[in-house]
Amino acid sequence: MRSFQFSIFVLIFTWAVLAQSVPPQAKPDFVQGMSALERGDYTRAIQALEKARQLAPETSEVADRLVSAYLQAGELSQALRLGREATAKWPDDADAHHFLGLAYFKEGDLEDALGELQRAEQVRPNEFGVHYDMGLLWLAAQKYSDAARELESALKFHSNDAVAHLLLGRAYQNSNRTLEAIEQFRSVLRVAPQTPLAHYHLGFAYASLGQNQKAIAEYEKEVARAPGDPEVQYQLGRTLLESGDLKAALQHLHRAAELNPQNPDAAYDLGKALLSEGATEQGERVLQKAATLNPSDPSPHYLLARALAKMGHQQEAETEMQRFSELKKSQASTGGMATGRAH
Predict the structure, then answer these.
(1) Could you count the other beta carbons within 10 Å of the beta carbon of residue 246?
(2) Domain 1-125 is classified in which CATH homologous superfamily?
(3) Domain extent listing, the chain
(4) In sequence order, which residues have a C-beta less than 8 Å from that of residue 92 and are 6 or more positions away?
(5) Predicted structure pTM score
(6) For residue 16, is pLDDT > 90?
């Protein structure tokens, strides 16, 4: 399954309330910084919040929001430095641990990110954002049961969050809980029908159950929403090919290969479709590319052997069949998984 691109930040600021905890001398700069942060003007946000911190160095709310500003600006070294200072100074500050955890997460340090988010969860167990980000972390670590547990908890506090439902569906799908995944993806579409990739993931779940017509209907909706997404075009083309709609499959597989020329699966399925159409020479060229893009995959070599034999190149066909056999044997001896394709 494709990875889903999303923000790691779940920063729902009720900063009008936070401002009440800020000393009067720092409040104007704090409000200015939070307003800039809300607008996405990170430079001004950092400048204003730095001034507020100088005026109120003992106020954790100011320090925490400065960490989040550096984090959102992509200045990870500053976010990490200030986050460590904040957690040392205010060890029971859930926001400090949360934002430091996000900084570690953004840096790719999942172990330290987990530690900080768990501390935030201990201090403030009933907060959507902490559970949500824990879910993201477990998804990144491919610990899908753990991700599902945290996202289920998050949804108890914000039951209509479409992205949380989408991510929970992904966690279920990757835990072989496909029927539950389908219900989550349907929930996304009930709550926010325009959510990116909702139809895609629902289609993928249907396809994994062999319900190709339902999958095609969902993929077509996603293609209508995002025609430039190569993965959606590919999955639609692949499922159409499996369903025997060669003409429509070729259209979408061609488009997928155009949008992402480096996808070996799109090249393989396009080559397979071209052979089925009788375009043997064109199919052979595309399959050669698929074999180059993924040298360890035996499947293109099997189809290349068939194509070359049909073209009268018997010696080359035998070479490709030998290569296919060698790669299959190599997969078996190393414990690698075969593609499972019906060549």
Answers:
(1) 14
(2) Tetratricopeptide repeat domain (1.25.40.10)
(3) 1-125
(4) 123
(5) 0.86
(6) no
